[in-house]
Structure formats: C-alpha cells, structure tokens
Amino acid sequence: MIGRPTVSDGVACWRIAAASGVLDVNSRYAYLLWCRDFAATSVVARDGADVIGFVTGFRRPDEPSTLVVWQVAVDEVARGRGVAGRMLDALFDAVPDVGHLETTITPDNEGSIALFSRFAQRRGAEVRRSELFSAELLGAGHEPEILFRIGPVRH
Question: Residues in domain N-acetyltransferase (predicted)?
C-alpha cells in the first residue's frame, strides 16, 4: 500500500535512508519534520504495518507547478519489486496541479537514472538534463548533481 507518511514514519524513513548506503542521510529529526510538514508531497510504501520505502518531495516555491523529488529509497527486503516506480507514480498522481517533476542525480547513480527515465517514458514526457550543482560546490569528493527536469507530465 502506498500513501501519505505520518510523523511516526519518519524513523523508518531515516533507517531506510541510512541502510541504503547511497543516499545523503539527513538527521532523524529532519525525516520526522519532513513527514509532518511535507506529507502532502511525499509517500511511503507499506508491507502490512512496515514502511518499506519512501519518496520525499516538495513543490518548488518559485514554480509551484513543479514537484521536486528529494529522496527515493526502498528497504533492501523490497528491492527489485517495482516499489520505487509505483511510489513515484502514486506521488505524482496525488499532488494536484503539477506538470513537471525535477530531481537531481549523480552521474554514477544508474538505478536512479533508470527509475526517472522510466517514469518519463511511462508518462510520455521529455527529460532535460543539466548540471545543477558542480562537484566543486558540493565538495568532499561529491559527484556533481545533475538536474533531471521531466515534463510536461501526463497524469
């Protein structure tokens, strides 16, 4: 089942992010806050009562018709079952009045590149890529963050 997160889901989101080994992990507090203040633009996937995945997002303040996806993660026990794609579809369909989706992906993250490319294909949308933040700006050996702007997207 895919639906809006509750504050108590923030702990599971933090745990899944930390266990992913690839995400920049925020504080536990940040995930709790996200599940409270951005629940309308985020989703969790559940297997029974257990959270097995999440997508966090928000509307761009200067362009509210754009949904920005911040993080996507699926618990190791649920990977390879299409959970991430279903969460992305469910989230986009649940947020009214959006026509574009944006996310950033490092060049070495093949899984995320494939996930968002398949989303665009399913929705018949164009994907435009450009560097948003350089490796120099991000520092500490971080790869550049490439902006994927997808749209217009069909609901």
Answer: 1-155
Rounded-to-integer distance, Cα 48 and Cα 56, Å? 20
Q: Please answer whether residues 39 and 6 qualify as being in contact, where contact means their C-beta atoms are separated by less than 8 angstroms.
A: yes
Q: Are 92 and 101 in contact (CB under 8 A)?
A: yes
- How does the average pLDDT of the chain come out, rounded? 96
DSSP character string of 21-79: SSS-PPPHHHHHHHHHHSGGG-EEEEETTEEEEEEEEEEETTEEEEEEEEEEEE-GGGT
Instruction: Give per-residue pLDDT as tens, 9-43.
Output: 999 999 999 999 888 899 999 999 999 999 999 99
Cα-based distances in Å from 19 to 60, 74, 76: 28, 10, 8
Q: Which structural domains are found in the chain, ordered by start?
A: 2-151 (3.40.630.30)
Rg (CA), the chain: 15
